[in-house]
Structure formats: C-alpha cells, structure tokens
Amino acid sequence: LSPVKDHFTFLKAAALLSSQVSNAFFIISGEEVEIKTAQLRQVSKQLGIAEKILFLEKFADVREVIDRVDVGVVCSYGSEAVSRITAEFMAMSKPVIVTRINVLPEMIIDGKDGFIVPARSPENLSRRMQELVQNTQLLAQMKENARKTAENRFSYQRFYQDTIEVYEKVIIKFSESTP
Description:
Structural class: mainly alpha
Strand order of the largest sheet: 3-4-5
Radius of gyration: 19 Å
Number of strands: 5
Largest sheet: 3 strands, parallel
Order of helices and strands: HEHEHEHEHEHHH
Helix content: 40-55%
Low-confidence stretches: none
Number of helices: 8
Distance between the termini: 55 Å
Mean pLDDT: 95
Strand content: 5-15%
C-alpha cells in the first residue's frame, strides 16, 4: 500500500458507485508499506462505505484475490513502469480499469478488455465501474477479451518469441556490420 497507487481516489470512486449501485462491494489487498490499512479504513468510514470494503493483506498467490472480483482496478498516479497485476487480472479473465499513467494504457485496449481513465479522477473511475456493473453483456465480453489479450500479448510463449526476434535482429545487424 503506497500513495502512488492512489487508494484514496479508488475509495472516492467506490463511494460514488455505492450511491448508485447498492450491492457494490470492493476489495483492497496489499502489504502495508507507506500507507496503513487503518488509514484506508478511516477514509472508507468517512465516505460511508466501510461495510462495503474488504481489506486483505498481501497474498503470496494473488489468484486467490483476483478470483473474487469481477473487475480489476489499477488507479495509480505515478510509477507503473511495469504492471504485473494488470496482466494477472487479464490472465484470469478480468477486465481492468487503469489510469493513463506510463505502461498502463499500453496494456489495455480501451473499451475492449478494460477502460483507461485519467489519473486522480474518481468520477471517471466510478462511471466506468458503473458501466460494467450495469451492462452484464459488456462485462462478459470484456472478460473474454481480457483473457485473449493476456494470452496473445503477455504469455511466456509471446515473451519467448519476442525475445528471439530481438536476438535475431541484433545478430543480423552485427553480421552485416562485420567484415
């Protein structure tokens, strides 16, 4: 749990969504680093959604948490040079709502396997969450698309193929430049 992950914007978006969708429920999971769970609990109480949020510690195997959600949210306002959790959500057929920060927009096809929203915008985040809650057909299609994207773009096979291509290009370029 770190400020750059912007749990506070997530909590505000959760409060907005809860005012529109009474059965919405949220999970925040992570290791206490720079932010303590007690701080997030206090904010959720102030927002009137304390009973709608489950706070979990960091799991060794994130699949246990991911399996319990319909949609992943990565609402960072900084960092995210690599976002393994986004790929993990997608691999488990979960669409992801991400912010327009660093690598995140490159991982999602906006409107197909998730949504991209501006950072620090609880209104936009809430609107996209609501869209998925209210449109079960869209949610189902995005779940299917998220899994396909993960298989096509983030699998070990794809990583292997991309790595071999880079090596081949380097070898060809090197062999062309040596006498």
